Amino acid sequence: MRLEAYRRILDVPGLRSILILGLLAKIPVVAIPMVLTLHVTLGENLGFGRAGWTVAAWTAGVAAGAPFQGRHIDRHGLRPLLAVATVVQALFWGLSPQMSYPLLVVTALLSGLLIVPGTTISRLAVAGLVPERGRHTAYAVDSMVTNLSYMAGPALGVAVATSTSTGLALRGIGLLLVVSGVAVIAHNPIPMPTGQDPAEATARPPLRRWLGSGLIATFACACAAGMFSSGAEIGVVGALQHHGQMRWISPIVIVFGVCSIAGGLAFGSLARSPNCAVVVGALGAVTLPLGLADRAPWLALALLPAALLYVPAFAATAATASSFALAGTRASVMSLYSTALTIGTALGGPLVGAALDRGGPGWAFATVGSVILLVSLLALPALGPRARRDKPPSRQPSENLLEEPVMPALHVVIVDSYAPTLRLAQHFRDAGASLVRVQSTQEVPRIYRSSPEPGAYVDDLVYDGGPEGLKALALRVAAYRPVAVVAGGESGVELADALSAALGLPGNGVELSEARRDKYVMIKTIRRAGVAAARQIRVQDEAELDSWHRASGGRVVVKPVRSAAGDHVFFCDTPEESVAAFRKITNATNVFSERNTGVVAQEYLCGTEYVVNTVSFDGHHRVCEIWRTSRIAANGLSDLADGGYLIARRGEVQDQLADYAAQVLDALGIRHGPAHLEIKITNEGPRLVEVGARIAGGNIPSHAQLSIGESQLDWTVRAYLNPGAFHAGADEDYRRTRYVANLALISPVEGVLRGYRDLEAIRRLESFHEMQIYIQPGDRITRTVDDVTYAGSMLLLHDTEEVVLRDANTVRFLDGHGFYELEPEDGQA
After folding, report:
1. Which among 170, 150, 148, 174 is positioned nearest to 161, based on CA atoms?
2. Coil, helix or strand for 406?
3. Mean pLDDT of all residues belonging to the chain
4. Rounded distance, CA 386 to CA 674, Å?
5. If we measure between CA atoms, which residue out of 682, 683, 688 comes closest to residue 664?
6. What pTM did the predictor assign?
7. Where are the alpha helices (DSSP H) in 635-758?
């Protein structure tokens, strides 16, 4: 059981106090039907029939009043309504003992209209405070608290009414309602979403936009769950009475209550909520055969599956309902949800009672179970994984990434947001998020110092280093109540892990942070998890490396344990070359302006290299794009990347890559956020080159978007800001609409660049889309040996694959010594 989910939820500021206030507000409300019944039957001696009408009038008021209350809360907030309601409840319950029966019925209806149930308050607060990804856990907690109130409220009401007087019990309910109302007014637990314009928050979207088939189906499921609540209670009593075993009522109620709490705990610990129609349908299915139990012990045993599903049914429907709430409709949605539950509860009792009278316990349970199952089956198509929530699907998923507000605050922290990942920052901004930038080092790495960076951040913080620095940074960041901490680049991965863990936000934890940066530990970790990996050694000295290479034979790769962009990666055919590479790497400064702290030597993986870009949330992995790289032997390197081609999602190779990538992500603990995996398909199968727990660089995701319509950038934003949409579409395959190739200019020369020949020939190619030149005339150009020494890059894009392949070959034909014109060296003409 993932108890960590409960810790994260209970750490949400304000939620614990809301649950306590909710319990205080629920106890008197759930006691009302029992106390009204006792007052009419015992206090007034008017019989159960008239008591039933009184309770029915109050219940009808609750059901009818909830939608109007919700509309008022959406427009004016909770406090004004609750102030009026508290006064009305004080008057009704204070005066009710002296009322005549007709007046009692009429005023009970009015009391119901103006009562604000504690369940509605807590559900609204959860929807406002808890991100959608964790609401099923929060609603599981709330449903378990509601269970406790049902255990305490009626029992307390009965005790007071029978030991003193029903009038005192009525006034006691009024006193508790006033106390809880004042406490809720003071606390005001339904806040305006942070950063949202109040006018926007109270603007009412058109009814057709938010009250769609999905929400109606959710209400139907909630109604069905309510039918079980009252129907099962009457069915159990009827069955025990039918078999003459009424003494079993208390033990069965206790066992049911304990098991329902256990089911709620298990449900809340799930990574995400199952489809609510499936949960409610399962509840109906296990209810069907309950009437076959002809002895109390067997009935108690048969009730266990239903008990385990009881809390999950309410939590799942509440979480689903809240996910449909657009700005300005949250209270309306959750109040209508309460009405659906009330209607179901009101219908369940008569339905089961009629079936009991006509056919006995077997028919009673079969009837209510069949109705619940039928409702859930009818609702399932509107709530299935392919169902759209409020709008038809868009050709550009990123355009309606946030069709609804799903976070109480939209602050996102990006660690090391530099030039390669500026598009990620912009995607978050486009989705409505405000950004806090954190710099993981005191100085900006040299490679990024000349890159322009827009200043559209609400704050710009620098990590001072060490545990105390992390603590201070976390405190400053926490003030923004961020919904996510994301690594903007390779250098920010470890700090993003630590910061998200310190703030209790979705992240990958710190236990395997080193394995996500250190190339040696990375391969060691996945091998330990049973994932096939290259043979390797962490090099301590030259002699050790020489010996290992001789024993391994063939080509090996020698590289720093912490770097990126192909920096100081050497392909060595002899031990002597390996030792020379070791000397060049040791104590050198890498692309992030850090001193190399170690060297790893690995067997050379012979095969085609692919790039798999993914995004994960709660361990659910989405393959965003797969690229096949092309490589050449040039400038003393035997394996220099010169291009990448976006390939289809499905195929024998792609399926291998996706399965292997998921194994690697799981082994490295990458459960949240983007990842960039480089994998080779060797004769022995897939083998990891390395992985970065961050967005792919080189604008690769943006290039994919030209063909797919979305990219790793969109899926990253979706995962953190709308997890429900992420989970709903993560398993769908991407589809290419055009063919894309990303090619690099491989400089074979060194000197001062005068200009490029044949650039216009490249621009005239049929599939040419755009070009970036990194080395300008007048600058010094060097031979290309890694990802940061390309002379330039270009994008080819076309509806026909053959055109892209032809033009790519043409580029490689043109790109050679004759392509680069150098200034004459001193002493040359």
Report:
1. 170
2. coil
3. 83
4. 23
5. 688
6. 0.54
7. 652-667, 700-708, 712-721, 723-729
Please give the backbone phi and psi of residue 691, each rounded to the nearest 5 degrees, phi first.
-140, 145
Q: For 674-683, b where at least 16 C-beta lie within 10 A, e where not — what string? A: bbbbbbbbbe
- Bridge partner residues of 600 (DSSP): 538, 559
Instruction: Name 794's bridge partners.
Output: 743, 771
* pLDDT tens, position by position, 80-91: 888 898 999 999
Report the C-alpha gap between 615 and 719 in whole angstroms.
8
User: What is the 8-class DSSP label of residue 409?
Assistant: B
Question: Would you state the torsion angle of the CA atoms of residues 278, 280, 286, 289, taken in this order, to the nearest 10 degrees?
Answer: -120
Choice between 590 and 229, residue whose per-residue pLDDT is larger: 229
Q: How many whole angstroms separate alpha carbon 54 and alpha carbon 52? A: 5
| Direct distance between the N- and C-terminal alpha carbons of the chain, in angstroms, rounded to an integer | 77
Q: Which two tokens stand for residue 690?
A: 């390395």
Q: Show the tokens assigned to 390.
A: 């409020």
Instruction: Please give the Cα distance from 40 to 54 (Å, whole number).
Output: 8
| Average of per-residue pLDDT across 815-827 | 85
Largest CA distance in the chain: 120
Both structure tokens of 768 = 């040419």
Residue pair 35/169 in contact (Cβ under 8 Å)? The answer is: yes
Phi, psi for 485 (deg, rounded to 5):
-120, 125
Q: Take residue 128 and report the two structure tokens written for it.
A: 């406002």
Q: Judge contact between 386 and 267, C-beta under 8 A.
A: no
CA 458 to chain centre: 24
The number of helix segments (H) and strand segments (E) in the chain equals 29, 19
Q: Per the structure block, which two tokens stand in for 82?
A: 């609750």
Task: Report the alpha-carbon distance of residue 824 to residue 428 in Å, rounded.
Answer: 48
Place of tokens 């901004």: 429
| Total number of residues shown for the chain | 829
3-state SS, one letter per residue, for 190-254: CCCCECCCHHHHHCCCCHHHHCCHHHHHHHHHHHHHHHHHHHHHHHHHHHHHHCCCHHHHHHHHH
Q: Report the amino acid identity of residue 47.
A: G
Single-letter amino acid, residue 327 = A
In one-letter notation, the amino acid at residue 292 is: L
| Eight-class DSSP state of 800 | S
Please state the separation of Cα 390 from the chain's center in Å. Answer: 19
State how far the alpha carbon of 713 is from the alpha carbons of 495, 716, 777, in Å: 20, 5, 33
**Share in percent of the chain as helix, strand, coil (round to 5):** 55, 15, 30
CB 130 within 8 Å of CB 15: yes
Return the residue matching tokens 């179901």: 344
With beta carbons less than 8 A apart as the criterion, state whether 455 and 437 touch. Answer: no
Going through 482-534 in order, the beta strands assigned E by DSSP cover 484-487
How far, in Å, CA of 312 to CA of 314, rounded? 5
Which runs of consecutive H residues, i.e. helices, occur in 445-513? 466-478, 493-503
What does the alpha-carbon distance between residue 181 and residue 336 come to, in Å, rounded to a whole number?
A: 21
Burial string for 780-808 (b: 16+ CB within 10 Å, else e) reads ebeebbbbebbbbbbbbbbeebebbbebb
Q: What is the mean pLDDT of residues 543-552?
A: 89
Q: What is the pLDDT of residues 369-406, one digit of tens each?
A: 899 999 999 999 888 654 433 333 333 333 333 333 33
- Give the tens place of pLDDT for each residue, 781-807: 999 987 778 999 999 999 999 999 999
